[in-house]
Amino acid sequence: MLRDKVSYDNLISIVVIYNPDFNQLRNIINKQLVNFKNLLLINNSPELDLSEFNCEQIKIINNSSNFGLAKALNIGILEAKNKKFQFVALFDQDTLLPLDFSKKMINFINNCEHDKACLFCPNFYNLVTNRFNKINKIKFLRLKRYYPVDESVSLPSFSITSGSLIDLSKFKEIGFFDENLFIDLVDTEWCLRAHNYGYKILQNNKVIVQHSLGEGHIKLFNLSIQIHSPSRLYYYFRNSIYLYTLPHISFNWVVIDFLRNILRFIFYMLFVKNRIKYFRYIIKGYYHGFIKKMDKLDE
Which letter does DSSP use for residue 280 in this model? Predict the structure, then answer.
């Protein structure tokens, strides 16, 4: 089956926005406008006025509250389908693009010979840890993580949503993003579900975006480990438990993720400040995951 060709005309960029730094947001939107003819802003902050971005290239959808990342992305995807676009480029507000991002990614997709590719992504440089992204590949009872030094194209088992280009037709078979997750593991779950349908993720390592992942980092031995807020840890641990119950999540992944969460818990208890607060949020996350309380966290 031949893949549809992506072009500037049938591609729309979707950016989810929540409580941004406005100066940074202006810079990000300007880079978006250079790369895309069509831009859709999904505003998850009802009190935030984005009217200064009104222009012919941009459409703004203002949500009545913070619907979470997954639902905001789905709102954008449905809008793109209704407007008869064929491809979407998905972003959050923390991704800064090079000026030739769309040109290189469009060429990458159109010249790709892998028939079962469903998601195309760039490599990214994490501005929080000041390091490049590692490729994540699921092996038997372990997660192989490495820098793609000798690979121009990689096939990770999953990737972050921001920077991903997806053929809209794939959502018909694979499904939309799981809104139960709200935030965190939204991308991982969708990629694992796509793999269950026989699809692959392709990463173009020649295209690099700058992305802020985490709220700080700690240097431990020779590692630079990103740290997240207590509320983000809540969602991560809660959503991990939720993923374990899904039919398309393999037992192999359950073991890998469970062991990694043990290490993650130990790390936060030993090396991160406010460990009592982190402990409470992690335990609450586990508990809510077990009882399937998947609403927005009430803080």
Answer: H
